[in-house]
């Protein structure tokens, strides 16, 4: 795998509203490595790339902003077995990679390099309300077969429904052969392809896991084998899904709070979660449990969870900021007491060992 490219992406700090360096890098990389591509920048700062001439195009997407604020001048990537962490020797501390969604950028650039016919959209401001995808001209996608965005934690989620509802057709789900790559259907929340679906892009979209964990924190890591598997899966989709997979979006629900778009979540039992009573009756949302287990593995405090990271949880959408704090404390206490979070994958041991070595050196 082209880890040189991946680590170059991690080294660029690209916070929301400050994506200029990342945009510049992407343009230069495409010019030097991806052949004859047409690269356009729209008024919002999105990059829209077309390679080759075809009646229809496979299309990939990613966002180029990240959440993390800490990014030292001596930031470097450290490989720990199959995992990558960001590290600052000066501060002797781990720092976030911005793998959400630099892993997606990596997949897009690798596919642009490998294939003769391709479209890619690199969006700004996803982390602060899908700013770029909300403003992009949908005409860019009129000749696309589908849109795939690798912008999901872990290594196995195939996001076919989000807050906005379904985002792809059954025909597309059957055509991609997800089982061969270990992907299973799951529910997501908010990302660029959901915004495009709701705006009426008219073709099937997917969000895929791309191997990052601890998103939005300084404890973020990438599992290289899972990112590699994501790239292989995307290549398979590009090579085998040559039809146009149309999808007609049905506007099931929509609410707006403070300028950000949120909708009602769909529980795994098939009922809609839209208020406090339904949230509790259905039990805590699966995604909240998963998110909490990720944060517990990296030692995030309850105070940080109730302030900095509160909006990452579904409870915040259903119950509001104040109502969610109690739910987050309940889930935190339950998982901490039961230690069920340790039953997933033990990243802490290998990461802490490399930290000890770096501190000694």
Concise account of the structure shown:
This protein is 38% helix and 23% strand. With 361 residues, it is of the alpha+beta class.
**Multimerization state:** single chain
The H/E string reads HHEEEEEEHEHEEEHEHEEHEEEEHHHHH
Q: What is the average of the pLDDT values?
A: 85
Label the overall shape: globular
- Please identify the structural class as seen in this structure: alpha+beta
How large is the radius of gyration? 20 Å
Q: How many H/I helices? A: 12
Would you kindly provide a written description of the structure presented here, covering whatever features stand out?
This protein has 361 residues and is of the alpha+beta class. The chain folds into two domains: 3-240, Zn peptidases (Aminopeptidase); 267-343, no CATH class. It is 38% helix and 23% strand. It is built from twelve helices and 17 strands. It has helices at residues 3-11, 20-33, 99-114, 131-135, 170-176, 192-199, 224-240, 276-281, 286-297, 302-307, 314-338, 348-360; strands at 37-41, 47-51, 57-63, 75-80, 83-88, 93-95, 118-123, 144-153, 157-162, 165-166, 184-187, 205-213, 221-223, 255-257, 260-262, 265-266, 272-273. The strands form three sheets. Strands 1, 2, 3, 4, 5, 6, 7, 8, 9, 10, 11, 12 and 13 form a 13-stranded mixed β-sheet that branches. Strand 14 (255-257) and strand 15 (260-262) form a beta hairpin. Helix 1 crosses helix 3 and helix 3 (99-114) crosses helix 7. The two termini are 29 Å apart. The relative contact order is 0.13. Mean pLDDT is 85; it is low at 253-278.
